[in-house]
Specification:
- This protein has helices at about 10-20, 55-60, 70-75, 115-125, 140-145, 160-165, 190-210, 220-230, 255-265, and strands at about 1-5, 35-40, 45-50, 65-70, 80-85, 90-95, 110-115, 130-135, 150-155, 170-175, 180-185, 210-220, 235-240, 245-255, 270-275.
- The chain folds into 3 domains: about 1-85 and about 180-190, D-Maltodextrin-Binding Protein, domain 2, CATH 3.40.190; about 90-175, Periplasmic binding protein-like II (D-Maltodextrin-Binding Protein, domain 2, 3-Layer(aba) Sandwich); about 210-275, 2-Layer Sandwich (Alpha-Beta Plaits), CATH 3.30.70.120.
- α3 (about 70-75) crosses α4 (about 115-125).
- It is about 30% helix and about 35% strand.
- By secondary structure, the protein is an alpha/beta fold.
- Bound molecules: adenosine-5'-triphosphate (ATP), 1-O-pyrophosphono-5-O-phosphono-alpha-D-ribofuranose (PRP) and magnesium ion.
- 1-O-pyrophosphono-5-O-phosphono-alpha-D-ribofuranose binds next to β9 and α6.
- Its EC number is 2.4.2.17.
- GO terms for molecular function: ATP phosphoribosyltransferase activity.
- It is found in: Cytoplasm.
- Keywords: Amino-acid biosynthesis, ATP-binding, Cytoplasm, Glycosyltransferase, Histidine biosynthesis, Magnesium, Metal-binding, Nucleotide-binding, Transferase.
- It catalyses: 1-(5-phospho-beta-D-ribosyl)-ATP + diphosphate = 5-phospho-alpha-D-ribose 1-diphosphate + ATP.
Length: about 280
């Protein structure tokens, strides 16, 4: 049975469970459930604090886990990313009151508040900056107003939290993060169950970002049309009863679909349809 760690709270929890559900796995119905066995898929899910997941996975007690790249790096655990999942995207950045610092070099002697001590201590050490780091569990933006620190290092998505606290970003992003699947570093890459699990999640990622496009076009326009819709492998071309016309079927990126439909129409293609993909194995 494959043993998988899933975030039980916070920004990662809902989207992770939704993705697993979309991939055909059973998911817990109550947020208090800590373990769920899915016998049909031979998988056991452990709902754990996102911050603890890399530690469980690196210990070898669980085969794989879903967590944030920033949490993985902060933990220092012996685990590695094997798939990027595209949700809980964020950057991790320094921020301070305007006029405090132009860049990290100005942090010398200052105190930096963060929930990600591991990441911050390493970043400062790599740059040779001596500053104090104070650990806070959350709502780090308030630390400056309350005089606990002059600088914070925190997760930034829209920047709303920083703006509301009257803070501005200092320097370049320390890292960019998203939800990732992790396994213990050096674990058997060929493990059949893990490979199957990853293929299912990859199927969800493709189904979410691609649509199937069908259209009819004149044979003499086919080359140009196919250049617009090359597909992942190659488009399917079928003859039409109407001579001189073919039907084309190809996967296209959902965010490009409307532009491609306009371009195909301008080329003379007609009956241009897109349909959602519900599941897929590439
Ligand atoms: N506003 C956000 N937008 C996108 N990703 C976020 C956001 N806040 C946190 N994350 C990401 O979620 C993960 C942190 O999960 P965690 O559950 O610890 O934090 P949280 O969502 O802030 O919940 P909590 O309220 O428990 O602090 C990290 O990978 C982080 O980058
Ligand atoms: O740039 P934004 O879109 O504002 O998002 C970033 C904020 O979201 C998270 O906070 P959360 O609400 O989880 O509270 P926390 O600080 O207690 O973790 C994160 O810690 C930032 O504070
Ligand atoms: Mg948070």
């Amino acid at each position: 049975m494959l043993r998988i760690a899933v975030p039980n709270k916070g920004s990662l929890s809902g989207p992770a469970s939704a993705m697993l559900h979309e991939a055909g796995y059973q998911q817990r119905k109550e947020s208090k459930e800590l373990v769920l066995v899915d016998p049909e898929n031979e998988v056991e899910f452990f709902y754990l604090r996102p911050r603890d997941i890399a530690i469980y996975v690196s210990s070898g007690k669980l085969d794989i886990g879903i967590t944030g790249r920033d949490l993985l790096l902060d933990s220092g655990a012996n685990a590695e990313e094997i798939l990027q999942l595209g949700f809980a995207r964020s950057t991790f950045r320094y921020a301070a009151k305007p006029g405090t610092a132009d860049g990290p070099a100005d942090f010398r002697g200052m105190t930096i508040a963060t929930s990600y001590e591991g990441v911050v201590a390493k970043h400062l050490a790599d740059q040779g900056i001596e500053a104090s780091v104070v650990h806070l569990d959350g709502a780090v933006e308030t630390a400056i107003e309350l005089g606990v620190a002059q600088v914070i290092a925190d997760v930034v998505e829209t920047g709303t939290s920083l703006r509301n606290a009257g803070l501005e970003i200092v320097g370049e992003p320390i890292l960019t993060s998203e939800a990732v699947v992790i396994r213990r570093t050096g674990a058997d890459a060929e493990n059949h169950q893990v490979q199957q699990f990853l293929r299912r999640l990859q199927g969800v990622l493709v189904a979410r970002s691609y649509v199937m496009m069908d259209y009819d076009c004149r044979v003499e326009h086919l080359e140009k049309a196919v250049a617009l819709t090359p597909g992942l492998e190659s488009p399917t071309i079928s003859p039409l009863h109407h001579e001189g016309w073919v039907a084309v079927r190809s996967m296209v990126e959902a965010k490009e679909a409307q532009r491609i439909m306009d371009d195909l129409y301008a080329l003379g293609a007609r009956a241009i349809l897109t349909t959602a993909i519900h599941a897929c194995r590439l």
